[in-house]
């Protein structure tokens, strides 16, 4: 889990969590199991979205009135669970990830939460899985949380597959502040993408300082 936003003191981070819908038992257990896995070196603790971000994703999915959604980067499934919970009964979420071991954990929790029938998981390289999707408006919401150097390509591939008015949500777009002083290829890719998106007339663009930075792109 993103331990706390780098923008907040520990006290304010606690206050944010106490002032947001609390995780239910399914989310609490998923967070605990993922923390135990990552403590043992299986994945990284920062991979999972924070609980308040999960609550925000559910709210955002509902506000957007999204019926069909896609996620790139699923890991143990918390963000997907959050989006799926915001979809109507007859909606659906397509999850793309290349790791079967982590997404097996996700499948268990989706089943426990009663949203498994709303989620389809496809395993493989995200760019290839996206390219194989029909090029027509399909999705109302997309959540991108995979390899940072891939984000620009994912945005381009998603754009023609989104309904007008649809919402793309990009995670980790502040890189813990390193967008101001990029240290590696991931930081450089996101810093360049942030600058490009601010000038991109395909979208209404806002970078929210939530968690590690969350960029919202509304398709014009
Ligand atoms: C930060 S984690 C996603 C966390 C997840 N959203 C959550 O809330 O738990 C990134 C995930 O992206 C996947 N991933 C990274 N690069 C990928 C690629 N090129 N194609 C497919 N999946 C990829 C990894 O396997 C990993 O599960």
TrEMBL record:
Transmembrane segments: none annotated. It comes from the Bacteria. InterPro entries: Cation-dep_OMT (IPR050362), SAM-dependent_MTases_sf (IPR029063), SAM_O-MeTrfase (IPR002935). Keywords: Methyltransferase, S-adenosyl-L-methionine, Transferase. One of its GO terms (biological process) is methylation. GO terms for molecular function: O-methyltransferase activity; S-adenosylmethionine-dependent methyltransferase activity. This is Caffeoyl-CoA O-methyltransferase. It comes from Klenkia soli.
């Amino acid at each position: 889990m993103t331990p706390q936003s780098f923008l907040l003191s520990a006290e304010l981070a606690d206050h944010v969590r106490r002032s947001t819908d609390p995780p239910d038992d399914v989310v609490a257990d998923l967070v605990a199991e993922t923390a135990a896995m990552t403590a043992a070196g299986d994945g990284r603790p920062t991979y999972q979205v924070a609980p308040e971000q999960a609550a925000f994703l559910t709210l955002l999915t509902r506000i957007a009135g999204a019926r069909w959604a896609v996620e790139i980067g699923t890991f143990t499934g918390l963000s997907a669970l959050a989006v799926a919970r915001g979809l109507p009964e007859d909606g659906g979420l397509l999850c793309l990830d290349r790791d079967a071991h982590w997404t097996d954990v996700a499948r268990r929790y989706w089943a426990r939460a009663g949203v498994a029938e709303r989620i389809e998981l496809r395993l493989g390289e995200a760019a290839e899985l996206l390219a194989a999707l029909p090029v027509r408006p399909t999705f109302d919401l997309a959540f991108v949380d995979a390899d940072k150097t891939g984000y620009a390509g994912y945005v381009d591939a998603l754009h023609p597959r989104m309904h007008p008015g649809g919402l793309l949500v990009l995670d980790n777009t502040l890189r813990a502040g390193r967008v101001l002083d990029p240290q590696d290829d991931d930081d450089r890719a996101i810093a360049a993408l942030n600058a490009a998106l601010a000038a991109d007339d395909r979208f209404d663009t806002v970078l929210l300082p939530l968690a590690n930075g969350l960029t919202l792109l509304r398709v014009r």
